[in-house]
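Researcher: Quick test of sequence recovery. Tokens follow.
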């Protein structure tokens, strides 16, 4: 067995086993916990989330406050080099999520004449709840020219079908798609950036960055332990989101089940990303009453119109004093509700973003939408079609990018790595 294989196995075993005495994890004092567990939740500012498990961490894990997302193009033609990179990525992610350096030597432990195998900006920082999640895009299986570069075309899941064009989309191909994605979430932005920076460094010559996105202030909660956050329109967002504790709903709507498609995706989930610019200056000139009518909720409490509590079910049959529906037929709440979409539900995990200004004195700001699900054809697509055709909120939104990725199940132990079952 090679030294590099031993190192990879050791890194994953330590991260998955929850060894609190490992380097930075011990210094942070955070116990490692499984991302699917609700017990012994770590301090959100410092604790570590276990890397190994049935499902990848960073999906149903309670959403952290910061995001660094990146999509890569694979630039090598060598299948073995790609597999080798995925093995190295897995080992590095296992170390970093445990609060350690990306490499075995680290940022300062090597010889002065050689480049360090960690960039060093996370030295002294705790794990900060870091999770790193990987996904594979449609073009990994067959590229834009139709070429099957790595012998994977026959293993592409039917659920990874190309997404249709939606009304109102103004998509930029340069910030859409990608062969492979990495999602790093943490409660410290420097920890998330450190993870992506080091994985991109490790992948040099095998992959190149296609596009990336920083995010802050999660726009939905993924656990009952979290308060509902607000988006840049000032409204509570994600009140009815799927939650970690709703295991039956996660089984039915989130995790790919045996028989849904190829075995390598069983226990995984499909991710849809959309960068949606929010025309905040126009929204800010809209009356409170109209804002609430467009959303279908009270801006203050988050309650559906006609209700008093945030988590009360909206009454879609209620009428106002004028005899019209209290929750408008074109309101956001009505159009995304499961009862109007064949029961479809999503686990949303989006973030706010502000990418400076557009040169005309307007903020280039909005929502980096991320939604995980069992089958986009039956979940995201019908919900988005309903919104695109009728939602009054579209007047204030400009979707500029889209991505679709198959996120495999979690790494199960020291002999496993991201994509092992796919490449077997």
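Model:
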């Amino acid at each position: 067995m090679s030294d590099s294989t031993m190192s990879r196995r050791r890194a994953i075993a330590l991260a998955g086993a929850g060894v609190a005495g490992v380097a930075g994890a011990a210094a942070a004092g955070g116990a490692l916990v499984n991302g699917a567990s609700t017990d012994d939740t770590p301090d959100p500012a410092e604790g570590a989330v276990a890397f190994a498990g049935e499902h990848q961490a960073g999906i149903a894990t309670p959403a952290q406050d910061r995001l660094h997302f990146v999509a890569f193009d694979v630039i090598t033609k060598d299948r073995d080099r790609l597999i080798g990179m995925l093995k190295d990525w897995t080992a590095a992610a296992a170390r970093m999520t445990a609060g350690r350096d990306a490499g075995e030597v680290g940022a300062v432990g090597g010889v002065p004449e050689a480049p360090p195998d960690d960039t060093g900006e996370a030295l002294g920082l705790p794990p900060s709840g870091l999770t790193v999640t990987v996904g594979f895009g449609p073009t990994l299986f067959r590229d834009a020219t139709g070429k099957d570069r790595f012998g994977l075309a026959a293993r592409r899941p039917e659920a990874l079908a190309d997404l249709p064009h939606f009304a109102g989309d103004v998509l930029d191909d340069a910030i859409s798609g990608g062969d492979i994605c990495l999602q790093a979430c943490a409660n410290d932005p420097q920890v998330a950036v450190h993870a992506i920076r080091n994985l991109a460094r490790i992948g040099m010559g095998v992959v190149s960055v296609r596009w990336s996105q920083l995010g802050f202030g999660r726009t939905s909660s993924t656990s009952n332990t979290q308060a509902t956050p607000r988006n840049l329109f000032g409204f509570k967002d994600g009140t009815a989101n799927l939650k970690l504790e709703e295991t039956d709903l996660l089984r039915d709507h989130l995790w790919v089940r045996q028989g849904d498609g190829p075995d390598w995706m069983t226990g995984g989930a499909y991710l849809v990303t959309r960068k949606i610019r929010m025309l905040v200056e126009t929204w800010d000139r809209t009356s409170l009453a109209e804002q609430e009518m467009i959303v279908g909720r009270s801006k203050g409490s988050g309650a559906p119109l006609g209700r008093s509590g945030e988590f009360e079910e909206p009454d879609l049959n209620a009428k106002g004093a004028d005899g019209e529906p209290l929750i408008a037929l074109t309101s956001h709440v009505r159009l995304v509700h499961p009862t109007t979409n064949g029961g479809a539900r999503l686990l949303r995990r989006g973030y706010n973003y502000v990418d400076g200004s557009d040169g005309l004195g307007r903020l280039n700001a909005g929502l980096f939408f991320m939604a995980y699900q069992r089958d986009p054809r039956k979940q995201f697509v019908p919900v988005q079609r309903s919104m695109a055709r009728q939602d009054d909120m579209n007047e204030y939104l400009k979707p500029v990018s889209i991505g679709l990725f198959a996120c495999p199940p979690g790494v199960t132990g020291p002999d496993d790595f991201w994509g092992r079952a796919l490449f077997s």
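The CA atoms of residues 32 and 273 lie 28 Å apart.
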